[in-house]
Amino acid sequence: MGDRFDVEVVVVGAGLAGLAAAAVAARSGASVVCCDVRAAGGRARSDEREGFVLNQGPHALYRSGAGADVLGRLGVGFEGSPPHPVVSGYSVTTGELALLPTSAGSLLRSPVIGLRDKVRLARLLTTLPKLQSASFGALSAAEWITSLGCTSQGTGVISALTRVATYASDLDLVSADAAVAQLQLALDGNVVYLDRGWQSLVDGLVAAAASGGARVLEGERATALQARTDGTFEVCTPARTLQAASVVVAAGSPAAARAVLPDAPPWELGAPATAACLDLGLRRGPATMVAYGLDQPLYFSTHSPKARLAPLGGAVVHVMRYGARTSSEDRDQLWALARRCGVDERDVAIQRFLHEMTVCHALPRPGSGLAGRPAIGATGTAGVFLAGDWVGATGLLADAALASGEAAGRAAAEHALRPPVAGGAKVER
Predict the structure, then answer these.
(1) 325 phi/psi in degrees, rounded to 5
(2) Which residues lie closer than 8 Å to 422 by C-beta, 6 or more apart?
(3) Rounded distance, CA 60 to CA 409, Å?
(4) Considering the entire predicted model, what is its pTM?
(5) Which of 5, 10, 78, 201 has its CA 20 to 30 A from that of 238?
(6) CA-CA distance, 302 to 58, in Å (whole number)?
(7) Alpha helices, DSSP H only, in 251-353?
(8) Nearest CA to 131 among 180, 62, 186?
(9) What is the mean pLDDT of each successive set of 10 residues along the chain, which is 429 residues long?
(10) Does 302 lie in the same domain as 251?
(11) CATH at residue 218
């Protein structure tokens, strides 16, 4: 089985959740090894092509979200810019683009909704920061939006904003507490598009883990996790066997976590969120910078310029459909939106089509909400902890991954470093 050595904490998975767990556990004083079948970063990795930096679809970090707080505590800095402030609403049915009401100023000028909806939306913008988001967990996001009493046009606008905030295509499948919390974050500090892409976060987290002494093993899949009679664990990869006092499973999907756990627990999980995305590097920017679909779950946004992701004079644009369908119909629809927003195919320097990305492995379910997601300790095995974008009661998307990673890393270190009980084993460093 190759090498065999002992550590105090093994982290399975080196995405954002796993890297955060590794960094926190290492900085808590534990010896840590983090392994992943792929390169560190998972879906947060960025690619650089001909001077353009492409994230895997559109990525944005909430400036006042839980993820930014975790990064701050780990000393992982980031730089970037907020999105372009002018947003258009796009109707597939009519092909029209019109100013979308996303602020007090644009609310007055937008032709998309009438006076009745403008009054209701103005009231929502005023009251939204004061809402207790946790109180809406019993509802779906769609039910909450219906309760606001808008016309079909107003409902379409709020639904578009909610899709962008949650990345959910079907708002009947995501809990309203998560939707309200995301909209509050958007109002509070908005998001930032990161200079040099999300690879900058990956590199920062790897450095934070290494500074605490953690070792990241890329290209090593954990094939088995076994509990030993002395209370420790063995994590096997094709290259080695790791013995640890505690383990964090941050393997990505719930199915991947279940495949590793000694006794897979019966979690009650929501639906996954998927997307189809067209990533474009352009020699010049489009005429329309940002557009949200009003009658289809579509998104068009120019991420650079604002963030530094393109050569001088160039632009990086992401065109996305929330909820992937077949490759051909999604690609055609995304190109139609790109052309409508002023993308000339002669200006395309590079392009990439991602047919079916997993945006979130399990959305918070209506009825149980964020609080109903599996806790970090919901593994069925003491000393084994979970982390991922579907774990814990805090945040959505990257915020959830980083928050659960921090909590799981801290818990794993505490478990590994606790004084041994009589007759028990303590891992030697």
Answers:
(1) -115, -135
(2) none
(3) 24
(4) 0.95
(5) 201
(6) 9
(7) 254-260, 327-340
(8) 180
(9) 78 98 98 96 96 97 97 97 95 95 90 95 95 97 97 96 97 98 95 97 98 96 93 94 97 95 90 97 97 97 96 97 97 97 97 96 98 97 97 98 98 91 43
(10) no
(11) 3.50.50.60
